[in-house]
Structure formats: C-alpha cells, structure tokens
Amino acid sequence: MSSSPRTAVATVEELQSRYAEVNPVVNAVCTPNPAALTEAARLDTERDDGRVRGPLHGLPVLVKDNIDTADLPTTAGSLALAGQPPPPYDAPLVRRLREAGCVVLGKTNLSEWANFRGSASSSGWSAYGGLTRNPYALNRSAGGSSSGSGAAVAAGLADLAIGTETNGSIVCPAALNGIVGLKPTVGLIPQQGIIPLSHSQDTAGPMTRTVRQAAALLTVMTGGGTDYESYCRGEDLSGVRIGVPRGPLWGYSLGLDRLTEEAIGMLSAAGATIVDGLSLPSPGSEEDQLAILAHEMKVDLAAYLASRRPGGPRTLADVIAFNRAHADVELRYFGQDLFERSEQTDGLDSAVYVAARLSALRAGRDGIDTLLRDNQLDALVTPSYSPAWAIDLINGDHVLGSSSSHAALAGYPLLAVPSGLVEGLPVGITFSGTGRSDATLIRLAHAFETARIKAHGPFPTPEFRQWV
C-alpha cells in the first residue's frame, strides 16, 4: 500500500472536517483523539527529516473501543468503564500501529460488551456510545459488534479501522457496510489489551476500504514477519481450488444468493477451479456455543479488569451490580441474561465447558479441515451475512443468516469482501480456510475485488438516507 501523497496533517484535518459533518448522522466514532493533529505533525516532521517508518507512515486509523489505548478511554461501550482512567498501556497491536507511523484518530463505538450481555441486544448500541447507524440505510443496522469501525470506514471517516471478532463481529459489519473485513487466525495478533469475551475465539482484525489496505494493516498488527500485501497479485487464480459449501450457509436471502453466484462465476473466470455442491456439518448446538462463551467470559474478563487502574470493577459480578444500579440507562433496551448466566459458571475445569469446547473443535476444525482435505481445496467461499435488518431497539436483532460460526469455533480466518447491493443494501462474500491460511484468503479476495471492480466499477458510496 503506497504512502499518503499528502501530509498527515492535511489528511487528519480533512477527516476531522468529515467527522463534524457525518458522525452526527451515523455515530460511528465515540471518542475522537484530541491529540491527532499533534501526532500527525510529529510524523510529518519525521518524514521531512527522511525518517519514514514504513508504508503506513502518517496514515490515520480508528480503533474499536474495546482495545486498550493509554491516551484515550477504553469502555467496551459500558458506563461501568466510561468513568475510569484510560488503561495504563496501549494494547500490543496499538503499539505496533503507532510504531508503524499510524495516527490514532479515535475510538469507534461497538455493540456493548461485544454483543454478549443480553440475548435481545441490538447491534451497534452501547450505553456509552449510543446507536451507530448504517450509512447506506440509516434505519438499518450497521451490524455488530464492530459496528462503529464498519460504519466509519463506509462513511469516509477513515480508510483504516480496527475491529474485533468472536463470532462474526468483523465480517458482519464489513458485509453490512460494504467494506473489507479480515478476521485473522486466532493467535496471529496478540490478545493482550483487548477486553475479552472468549480467549479461544477472540481476535482483532483490519476493517478497510480495500483488500490491499487490510493486508498492509495485518502485516503491521502481526509484527511484520509476513508481508501480507505481497499476496495481492492481481486476478489470476490458475491452479487454485475453491469449495462452495451450500449447506447450511445459503438460502436465507435470494438477492444475496444471486450476487454470490455471480461472484463464484468471476472466480471461475479468473482461473479458479470451483468445487460446488459441498456441505459443512452443523456447527453444533447453540447451547454448547453459549456454554463456551459464558465460561470463558467470566474468567477472561476478571483477568483483564485486574490490569486496569484501581477504582473500577474487578469482576463480572461487579459489572452486573453496576448495571442493576444504573438500570435506567444500561438496561433500558435489553437485559443482561448472558452476563448472569456467565456469572453462574464454575471455571474452565468444568465438565460442561470441556465437553462443549471439544464439541466446538470437532464441528469447527474437523468440519473445515475434512472438507478442504477430501476435496483438495485451498479455501471455501460462501455468502457473508443477510442484508442489513431494520434497527429495533425494543425487540433486538433480526439476522436471517450468516457464515461465521464454523470458523469462530475453530479459531480459523475469515475475509469478507463486498459483492454488490441488494435493493441498495451492501452484501458480501466470505472466504474461509484452515488455520493460518490468511495469506491465501488475501490472495483470493484481492483477485475477486479486482475482477468485480473491472466488471462493475468502484463500490457505490453511501447516500446517508432512510431505506424504504
């Protein structure tokens, strides 16, 4: 990815002007960085002195508000953390971004506690940040839980943003907002300094306008050992075998299915061998999936809260009590039944947890790896998520379908890239594969992106209107 042709100061000033115009409409950024211009000026001075840190030098980036920043609050969207001092240190991934020369523009809103507080939640809402709206349809969801990062990139508030995912929280808002979202293999990026939900599934990842930008960000976030941008090699997919698992990942949106069929045709035209008519096993029971998250949430959150400065909550029980004491705001739209379930768990040695985790690994890793091996595949391609559903703060989300659960349970990578519009609403396709196949997915997604732009032009920009 080439460096910005303008100064960092000019770029930040332009984005701050855009923020003043657009953010009141979409509410994607919850905490702007008042020092962004100062940071940009320092990086411009370094460039003038011949000290360029790399291809991201001077480029602005937005960071999801569950990732630690030592100079800005980190709240997970909760008032329980909103009044606390910022964390004592940057998360390792934020430190790497700064060391690469990125300007942290601010923090993006999210579904509170990464969408694991109440089962009737509305994606994109938090007590601290309010409601994030989809720039393509202001009365439709921006997805979750990285709603602010997805909406911010779509709305032109930054080309680069960071989200986090446990199960769909990057690829969902990427698909709904018409941007690229890369959920890396779990463990590829350090988990330290990220408010946790599940250590077996959580990861941060890039959310960007293009696949190339996502690859460049991933290179920095993983420590620079692999140049992921070098895998953006054009359209030729000769020798690549891509599987199409039909069940149970299709059939919930006719418009989405139609655009996905067109995308598969483009991949074939680029030289890929398409192996169709496949099927993944069921991702297992919803009860097992919830059991994993509930057990890990209680343990992992306590470990994280111990790293924060004194004065705030130290356990999940503390957060539950805070929410009850501030129910008029925190529990206005939905409750905290998932928190309460998590609080009742009895540790990671529990037989319930161990059994659920083994079941998840069989459904996720064995399911994906068996399909890849038996059919000699490099990757899989599926529809991403149903088009954005209407915002309903009273009854919660109405998701028709998705394709993230198998990879979530396995800890394997996903890469969502826009495929088109269904009645004006963005949709995408998702590439998936085995563990640490991130570079392969980048190659495939970039080839598709190149072919789609050649056929249809740049992806349409949002009009900030109500969808009817």
UniProtKB/TrEMBL annotation:
SUPFAM superfamilies in alphabetical order: Amidase signature (AS) enzymes
Lineage, broadest ranks: Bacteria, Bacillati, Actinomycetota, Actinomycetes, Propionibacteriales
Domain of life: Bacteria
Every Amidase domain range: 11-441
Origin species: Kribbella sancticallisti
Descriptive protein name: Amidase
